[in-house]
Amino acid sequence: MNNLLFYVIIIPISNLNNFFLYLFSDILYLIVGKLFKYRKPLITKNLKNSFPKKNENEIKNIRRYFYKHFSDLIVESLKGFTISERRINNKIKLKNTELLNEMAQKKKNIILIGGHFNNWEMSAQKMPLECEHELFAIYKPLTNKFFDKKMKDSRGKFGLRMIPMKDTKKYFLADNQKPRAIIFGSDQSPSNTKNALWIKFLHQDSAFLFGAEKYAKEFNWPVVFVSIQKIKRGSYEVSFQLITDQPNKEPKGKIIEDFAKLLEADINQNPPYYLWTHNRWKKSK
Length: 285
Description:
The chain has a single domain (about 1-275), classed as Glycerol-3-phosphate (1)-acyltransferase, CATH 3.40.1130.
């Protein structure tokens, strides 16, 4: 069944050219956003709590554009299975990579920290093509072994290596000759809030994963924020901003707080492009 789904449905969609790929996305939007109204109550609740000053029409418009963007994300994720280097170079532009590459030339390992905003998947997939660090990304393995392998193969086709969450520290301890950059998606709701850092984020008490800061301080790796902007449909621009190059000197919690502020600024600038289907605020302080 897995083979049938992957080779008969996913791969043919993945091989579509841009015109038909986004035509399929338009159809998907009608199904997901209009017919089934996927997670509409949760999306609406998240938007109203995050933007308390926006009226009903503004919330409705953000939700509508989110569904369109969400449909694009789905087809772009499928495109990732077969995308060529030429096509990903056209879709994802990396700015100011010299910030990273200068640290790589100085043999400095770094942490890249970002959120579920715009196309984070394809941006990470592209980074090894222009970044001099060896690139790793923390992820939670899928229970389906077939699709877990296909997903890792897709994300890693240009050099990105996937690290299961449980093995994170092992990769920090590894004695690699080439400098490493490890990517953290740090805006998800922690499964256990016992060790979470609580921050006011989008007008709400929000639990943040503390792992990126913990490892930055323990191993003294600089932390760089990854900002992803949607330039036009199917085209994204990635830029980098140093949060700190001396994590050991930062007060506890400040690295994650600075990350949250930067991500919040990006979301406020373009609200439809955040992952509003995620039950981000399911836990209370």
